[in-house]
Amino acid sequence: MDTVTTPAVLILLGPPGAGKGTQARMLEERFGLIQLSTGDLLRAAVAAGTPAGLAAKTVMEAGGLVSDEIVLAILQDRMAEPDVTAGVILDGFPRTAGQAAALDALLAASGQKVTAAVSLDVDDEAMIARVAGRFTCAACGEGYHDSFKQPAVSGCCDKCGGVAFKRRADDTAETARARLEAYHAQTAPLIAHYRGMGVLRSVDAMDGIDTVAGALGSIVEDVTA
Ligand SMILES: Nc1ncnc2c1ncn2[C@@H]1O[C@H](COP(=O)(O)OP(=O)(O)O)[C@@H](O)[C@H]1O
């Protein structure tokens, strides 16, 4: 495994379907960084039926943004766990100006700052198509798509042989459009915030998964050297 020398705080910015989760998992494997996905943390809270999960469920199903208060609370809990000292990749956070300011303040309290924010640049219509057909192996999380990537043996995961698959409740074309609108209204402005801080990078995320992973890996090596 390649290792990073300083604890990095990397942010992946991009609309739903841009590949943030896929790429964050690959960076986690390659560099030993920890993927922190607020979407995954919220889905776990919904599944567990916690008060935060109950409050988030309806908003998530409609494709809106969960309140900063809830998201910050679950993220802070996760960041307080010991494994994150190796460095983190934030996937799906921050998503609003308020969350970005809260993250800056949280890091400043321990003398840190965002190492790099990488914008995954993609085409909106392609994202609707990507999101609307995607599904994953319930056992190992390997990603598939109705049109672009079916398991080689129908009904059987290529990676682990699992036979159960799942789709996210919010991965419909209609909800994907609402999520894309929320991204442009509330999250895309953060690109200027990180450009102003001098930490913005961008990659063309319309390329294949491995090409994008290569570009991201080079950025991680560069900013953590
Ligand atoms: N940082 C966040 N702030 C507010 N809501 C969030 C945040 N992260 C995730 N969510 C909620 O969870 C949903 C799914 O998020 P995520 O798994 O990151 O998927 P995607 O990036 O594909 O939309 C979002 O549509 C939103 O409702």
TrEMBL record:
AMP binds at T38, R43, G64, L65, V66, G92, F93, P94, R95, Q99, R168, R179. Its main location: cytoplasm. Pathway: Purine metabolism; AMP biosynthesis via salvage pathway; AMP from ADP: step 1/1. GO terms for biological process: AMP salvage. Residues 37-66 are annotated as: NMP. Its EC number is 2.7.4.3. PROSITE patterns: ADENYLATE_KINASE. Residues 134-170 form the Adenylate kinase active site lid domain. Pfam families: ADK, ADK_lid. ATP binds at G17, A18, G19, K20, G21, T22, R134, D207. InterPro entries: Adenyl_kin_sub, Adenylat/UMP-CMP_kin, Adenylat_kinase_CS, Adenylate_kinase_lid-dom, ADK_active_lid_dom_sf, P-loop_NTPase. Zn(2+) binds at C137, C140, C157, C160. It is found in: Cytoplasm. The keyword Transcription regulation does not apply. GO terms for cellular component: cytoplasm. Keywords: ATP-binding, Cytoplasm, Kinase, Metal-binding, Nucleotide biosynthesis, Nucleotide-binding, Transferase, Zinc. Monomer. NCBIfam families: adk, PRK00279.1-3, PRK14527.1. Belongs to the adenylate kinase family. Consists of three domains, a large central CORE domain and two small peripheral domains, NMPbind and LID, which undergo movements during catalysis. The LID domain closes over the site of phosphoryl transfer upon ATP binding. Assembling and dissambling the active center during each catalytic cycle provides an effective means to prevent ATP hydrolysis. Some bacteria have evolved a zinc-coordinating structure that stabilizes the LID domain. Catalyzes the reversible transfer of the terminal phosphate group between ATP and AMP. Plays an important role in cellular energy homeostasis and in adenine nucleotide metabolism. This is Adenylate kinase. It comes from Rhodobacter viridis. The lineage of its organism: Bacteria, Pseudomonadati, Pseudomonadota, Alphaproteobacteria, Rhodobacterales.
